[in-house]
Amino acid sequence: MSNARVKSALVFVPLLLLVSWLGGIVYFLFILVMIGIGTWEYWRLLKTMGYDVSFPLMLAGVELLLILRQVSGFAATEWALLAILLGSAIFSLVRYSKIEAQAVLTFGLHVSGILYMGWLGGYFLSLAALPKGNWWVMVTLALVWMADLGGYIFGTKWGKHKMSLRLSPRKTWEGYLGGVIFAVSSGLILSLALQPVLPELTLWEGAVMGLVLALVTPFGDLFISMLKRAAGVKDSGTLIPGHGGILDRADTWLWAMMLGYYLVLAFA
Q1: CB 124 within 8 A of CB 31
Q2: Contact by Cβ (8 Å): 66, 38
Q3: Angle, nearest 10°, between helix axes 3-22 and 133-158?
Q4: What is the pLDDT of residues 174-187, one digit of tens each?
Q5: How far is it, in rounded angstroms, from Cα 138 to Cα 67?
Q6: Within 13 A of 161's CA, how many CA atoms are on the CB side?
Q7: pLDDT tens string 125-172
Q8: The model's pTM
């Protein structure tokens, strides 16, 4: 890893853990800002591809989903989705009336972008809202980071078989296996280390949580890689030196929070 990447990790990782530990309004505002910046990066990738999408519309939809998730959980889901569909449809109708060829396509891009960033991003708040949610958020983040670390170490030392040359030339199946090994081992260790504060996390649950996160979250990384490749850019942004943008870091977190939420519910 580059020096800039290491230094950024040493700053950003403790910051996110601290915010997760504090919880409450600090955590909520941090997530609003982080997902908002990620939405801007997502929008910019689409614009770079040549698609005529509206950042204000996309940001409004994402923030609406986040705020409603914080205030009422999933209770306002139907109203939120209705507002997003209507807003995106009206925007496309206006664009079509101006004889813009992409009007129909932008409807799908707006809806999918809002749901991807806002609906998935909302699980940062849903997971934190569970009993001892701040601990579950930190455990989930720790397991994803350990999966990333295992993937990097195994991929660097033994990586030979590429997962997808077109999407991510550096990712290998050996690295994928390393991520699984590190995440499962970390899940076992955390379940023992956190018994005084999180006895709900048993040995087998820690292992299962590490396994599921390590198996699934890399595809969140590949999805954002697909957007970056289509846009012809290396990183989604430049906010975090050595890492790129928020999406370059949160690509796996978005999926991890959703998986973590349903795993915790299944464990209960």
Answers
A1: yes
A2: no
A3: 160
A4: 889 999 999 999 99
A5: 21
A6: 4
A7: 999 999 999 999 999 999 998 998 898 889 888 878 887 767 677 788
A8: 0.89
